[in-house]
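A quick aside before the break. I want you to see a complete sequence-to-structure record at least once, exactly as it would be stored in a machine-readable document. Don't worry about memorizing anything.
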Amino acid sequence: MTAIAPGKGCVLIADDVPDMLELTTRIVAGMGFEVIAVGDGEEALAKARSNRPDLIIIDIMMPKMHGIDVLKAVLSELPVGVIMASAKSFKPDVDQAMMLGAFAFITKPFKEQDLADAVERFFAQRSASRASPTSAAAAAAAYAPSLDLTGGYWKLWGTRGSIPVVGPQYARHGGNTSCLEVSRGEEVILIDAGSGIRDAGMELVKGAPRHIRLLIGHTHWDHIQGFPFFAPAYVPGFRIDIYGAPGFGKDLESVFRGQLDRDYFPVEMQDMAADLSFHKLEENPCVFGDVRIGWEFMNHPGATVGFRIEAGNRRISYITDNEFLKGYLGRPHDIHKDDLYVGPFRKTIDFVAGADLLIGEAQYPNDEYPKKIGWGHSSVSNACVLAREAGVKRWIVTHHDPMHDDQALQRKLDLTRQILRDMDCDIDVTHAFDGMSQPL
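That is the input. The structure line, written in tokens, reads:
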């Protein structure tokens, strides 16, 4: 630890636990800083205003005034740095503190060196910032790249299957059911109308009314349940074309009108002010501007399709519901495209082949799959066979089971990566989360 000479700065420490306050004070004072120690949030804010310290180290759960409220107040009023030090280190709390402008977040109980390192980093960065050129010429020359979205983007608004979920245990992956947006030029294409379409719609109505294409993979509840809350459907001037595959028990319009029946929902379809029209998927691929979308039937109960999106030189396969190798419980290493068992599923392999990216399901870990055979979703290892045989280079796993929280999904992702390594497959695999997006 590099010592910092006395007189280099003043640090205000706020903690309502006397032992922790004493420990933190000893560490920081031992580094040569002037220290002001207080025991509640109200006094911390008052001392910050009167003494104007260089750095504040504060707990979250403070009496009289919450640590997050102190953080907001001091950063809005003073040129000061803030380090949060708390045992309340859940991801939402850490994210909130960092988003509000905290310099660092240290989890209690902390090692003395971790706290000292954070303090040193703050003062080192502040010194470097003060030494940097501040002239107009230097500012004009600063490198400030921006994300290039001229070629469009895709965004996942919902990544769950079956039913939405909520709670801190789902914070990392999110809880909305299926919805994918593909935007390129004037084309806005949404695939599936799960609960994620509500957030997509709230974003779309911020702009002027426009033409939206909505493609439905199938009409199971988790893929249409968000449509009654799709804000553009209620705004005059929006035109929404809705497409579904042939083979439904009812025509697509009847399905959507049914969920808007007054026995189920206070608004009927005739109350929607947008121009709505329903279409059967017939052309394959469908061409929307310079976006081409191919479709193929998948192995899932009812009329279910997956999609292949081609935009510019990018090809994305989007398959949320598909029981690949239905009933197969053997090792993925032992089965290949030319096996007779694979025969009924070769069309799916061919449909995915050549994609730059597969956004596809692997809903069940192998220990769960034997009890879920015939439910229309793949085991992890069987989905790995699809990715391998289709020559996928990148795979984003979606349609997470509502019973799987963030910890369970992390274990499932670790297992997926292990299976791929054991199969000598160099596939970049990660998990989808609500809000995930990338340029096309």
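Two observations worth writing down. The first strand starts at residue 10 and ends at 14. Residues 10-129 form a domain with the Rossmann fold fold (CATH 3.40.50.2300). We'll return to this after the break.
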